[in-house]
Amino acid sequence: MKNTIIKTEKLCKSFIIGKTSNTVLKNIDLEIYEGDFTIIMGSSGSGKSTLLYSISTMDTPTSGDVSILGQDITHLNEYEIAAIRKKDISFIFQSMNLLPDLTVFENVAYSGYGLASKEQINQKATDLLTSLDLGDSLLKYPSELSGGGQQRVAIARALISDAKIIFGDEPTGALNSSMGRQVLDILTDLNNKGQSIVMVTHDIKAAARATRLLYLSDGKIAGDLKLGTYIPDNRAEREDAIFQFLKEHNW
Ligand SMILES: Nc1ncnc2c1ncn2[C@@H]1O[C@H](COP(=O)(O)OP(=O)(O)OP(=O)(O)O)[C@@H](O)[C@H]1O
Ligand SMILES: [Mg+2]
Q1: How far does residue 109's CA lie from ligand 1's centre (Å)?
Q2: Which of 22, 78, 147, 191 is the residue whose CA sits 20 to 30 A from 232?
Q3: In Å, what is the CA distance from 68 to each residue of 49, 80, 105, 134, 246?
Q4: 159 CB neighbour count, 10 Å cutoff
Q5: Chain segment 100-115, per-residue pLDDT in tens
């Protein structure tokens, strides 16, 4: 029996524009389990990012409850939320949110200070950036990098803290296929070592890394596919199973 790390009860999210209300998430009851590489798919506009933000403290639900690691986040104050963000979760944003006045190295290392000694964090930031082919760009500013380069800085920043849960909103979306594979390999490796991952993607190759695939449609979880642990040898088989699952849901 796996531990539940995220639980939603009757989660609803609506956006009000003028006089019309657009209900994007409709009474979602969902449990996400420790150790899983959970991937969320669904057509564009189905609410994947909205769901990810709502279960990761980045946005608040309109109604319903969300718990992270046993704490009901809908009732926490901003300090308690900040503590969860610093220590327990990290987030790879769809729009990168790097700080433009900090170097690549500083963007990553500053997120980690306080979690271990400064020397340890500095070393880890350097190692992470080097593993993402950014070893030569430590002293550059984000604006000097390509979109894919900036995305990799955001990934390094999310990995500096050894968070229990890593959230990603299309973290490989801006990367070429070989860099995308490299990032997926890093995430798979971290997942195998025990970090839980919750990630949104449009990419079947990325989805093949999932141990569980959720399909979002019409504001609800319409499909829930369990997959075993990823091994490169069974990738083609997994991609077939995922393709079939997506076809059944009119992806
Ligand atoms: N801040 C907002 N204000 C108003 N409407 C919003 C807001 N954020 C999202 N929406 C609406 O909610 C719906 C779902 O958006 P969301 O970004 O969650 O979709 P998505 O599944 O992530 O799409 P994509 O695959 O294109 O990233 C859309 O109709 C969108 O217009
Ligand atoms: Mg989105």
Answers
A1: 31
A2: 147
A3: 17, 12, 30, 33, 28
A4: 25
A5: 999 999 999 999 999 9
